[in-house]
Amino acid sequence: MSENKKVKTKANNSNGLPRKRFYRARAHSNPLSDSHFPVPIAPSHVDYSLHYPHYFHPDTTTDDNGVSTFIPCKTRSKKIQFADIGCGFGGLLISLSTLFPETLMIGMEIRDKVTEYVKERILALREANPGQYQNASVVRTNSMKYIPNYFEKGQLSKMFFLFPDPHFKEKNHRRRVISPHLLDEYAYTLQVGGIIYTITDVEELGEWMKDCLEDHPLFEAISKEEFAADPVVKLLSSATEEGQKVARNDGQTFTAVYRRISLVATDLGIHEV
Amino acid sequence: MEETMIEEGESNREGGGGEVSPALIAVHPLEKSVAVAIGSELRVFDLIEDCSSSLVDGSGGPLHSDSIRAICFGANGRLFASAGDDKLVKVWTTNPWQCVRTVIAEKRVSAVAISHDGLFVSFADKFGVVWVTGTDGDHEIKEKASPIFGHYCSIITSLEFSPDGRFIVSADRDFKIRVTVFPKNPFSGAHEIQSFCLGHTEFVSCLSFVCTQEHPQGFLLSGSGDSTVRLWDVTAGSLLDTCEVGSKAGLSECDGEEENVYSAITDICTSADGSVVAVGIQSLHGVVLLSCDLSARTLSVIKVVSMGETFVPTSLGMSSSAERLWMVTGASNLPVCPSFTHVRVISGLKKCGSDSSDHEPAVVEENEIPGGIKLLEKLQGSGSNAKEDDLLAVAEAVKAAMRNQLIKRQYSVEKRELRKKRRNDRKIKR
Catalytic site residue A165? Predict the structure, then answer.
């Protein structure tokens, strides 16, 4: 199963990096269940100082009694631009962090232990490489439910969906992270011109994701030239733990990269605002 | 303490047989008729003819067989829609009262709305999917609806079209209000999200628009389980004002034990210009009247109208002239008094903005209600002479039902671990 992330090798035991074997988790998490972790009320309530202390100071005030309250932030100098949905063990995030050192990026992962691992991994990397990896962070959340709580309209320039849970059974298709209705939300979050990257090693799911994107009026496929020139495309299969595993087994991968476009007056009768 | 409360809540939910559903009321925009839904029963009284309307089903579809959860009139009152737990959405013409269309939904329906041009009926199910169907008889797929967008697996509690018809607004139990551009041809989906209105800290229970000539795009009011009513600019998704209605009405937010005892807003009903906003709250025997100042973009409490009796309204209705506020209380599937309903009317709403004290909003005597005793007999049905205890039981049952359905249960870590161990799909291992 492509989602089975049990890694048996002992890696990264130098530099104080966390070891995966201490962060094993069930491969699946139910995206339909009620969440019990805290969710920000609105994007302005996301505490950037927790995620990017190098760039932001705590958004809190402390009153006379020593009780600190969080101040929602209306204007920020910098906003998160990349979101890796279901970031897993964070391989892509780590690579992107050095490739785009000035861009804030966040990984979203629903399994708490895996999130904990990525958090430790980023902290260790920041420690070992002063000045680097300050732009990457991770949050434990259910992105299928709470994307609008984290990002404003048109905030993101790139979204990543790498090796998502295939959910083979038809009755579980509604649990897939790429679906016609969820694409509406991703289109809302992406700025016009923003790119959505998807990759999977399951042919059936690859077809599904491509079909969903193809049929959506707010997305169009990027050109072959652009696909070949985009340095991020290469990372999709090489940077992630899941991608490396597929490569080890000489597996096939299926990639779909689409651009967020704006609606023009079409025969659908939808008009641009 | 928390644990035992949760257990009680769960056993109530599982043990009680049929789910309790609140009585609903809807008033024709020109106050030509009043409709009350209780359980699977729809009762309509014609105020012009001064008689009860008999409902004719010309659509050939089945009748409502389970609790009706949502009713509404279209903007000009020509159409009416009803939908509920039996997965049926019925579209009626109101002159004469006749069902012209029955759509069979896939899931239980939790909200319904009619577009202002009367061309489309939109409804939402308990899985968070919003559907649309045409009202014209010659629409190609007659008995089917098309899904147009979805809230990911969240119960949609309310659905409204914006006054200018540009947007369809949906509220869910995940604290969210979504504003979606309603396309000219909605059957291929409504993909463009205009905004999200985020700020409520509990489920959003009801929505209502206000608009004036100066502000034709209108502003949105929302009520929530967090005991507040909020005012929004839907185009930008920005919060303009918050009114802590629960505390203003004198309902204590903390009963000393649990924080989760906010009294939820049950319904909001507005006059078109926003001068009067009536708000129903759990545990309040009456309504709170707010005033919405659209140029200053503020909400303020005008008055708490007490009923002087045991009467917690489950639903509110008003015509567009907003002279009278119609209220209903009642619940179906109650062991004490099945399908019991009570209707009350408050008049003098328009004058309460000015200071003339002789026109205070007041509860109308039974025989002064338009339609009089005849109307009450029709809308309240039999068993209307319930005792005070029964009225309290109704209020409590409706409150518990809403809580069970919409409040997110909080489990302690140990409890969660215990629940994981009891999971069905892991029983083989254990």
Answer: yes
